[in-house]
Amino acid sequence: MYSLVKGWILLLIYNILIPLLFIGILYLLYKWSKELENRSFTIFIYFLVSTNIGPLFSTSTEDGGDFTLWFPMGFAMVLIYLYASKRHHPAKLKASALGLCVAIVKMIQAYL
Fold it and tell me: Taking a C-beta distance cutoff of 8 angstroms, is the pair 74, 99 a contact?
């Protein structure tokens, strides 16, 4: 009986945590977009691009499985673009860093 209750509580916490994180991310992006004078929607684009992950290396294992090494390629592309264009606005860097955090969570889920 105790393990059933514990499982329900963990499921409830997980189902509440995801929307709260989503609302928090949207709030931060909205607040940072107000820091730009024009084209404030680009903060959301920087965030979405930097959440992209891609396979860097893939190989077959001896037991018949596949191993893929994931890398946050979107974040690397955003950093290269920001460095090349000399547009180092702090809000854009913050949005891409938040996207890197989401990309790390996506990589952890890919390995599980």
Answer: yes
For the chain, give the mean pLDDT.
84
pLDDT in tens, 1-28: 455 556 666 666 667 778 888 899 989 9
Instruction: Go through 65-78 and write b for each residue having 16 or more CB atoms within 10 A of its CB, e for each that does not.
Output: eeeeebebbbbeeb
Q: Which amino acid is at 42?
A: T
| Interacting residues of 75 by C-beta distance below 8 A, sequence separation 6+ | 50, 52, 96, 99, 100, 103
Reading the block at residue 62, the tokens are: 């001896």
pTM: 0.79
By CB atoms closer than 10 A (0-12, 13-18, 19+), residue 42 is middle
What is the 8-class DSSP label of residue 60? E
pLDDT digits (tens, 9 = 90+) for 64-86: 778 888 899 999 999 999 888 87
Taking each helix axis from N to C end, the angle separating 42-50 and 73-85, rounded to the nearest 10 degrees, works out to 130
Please check whether residue 99 is in contact with residue 76, taking contact to mean a CB–CB distance below 8 angstroms.
Answer: no
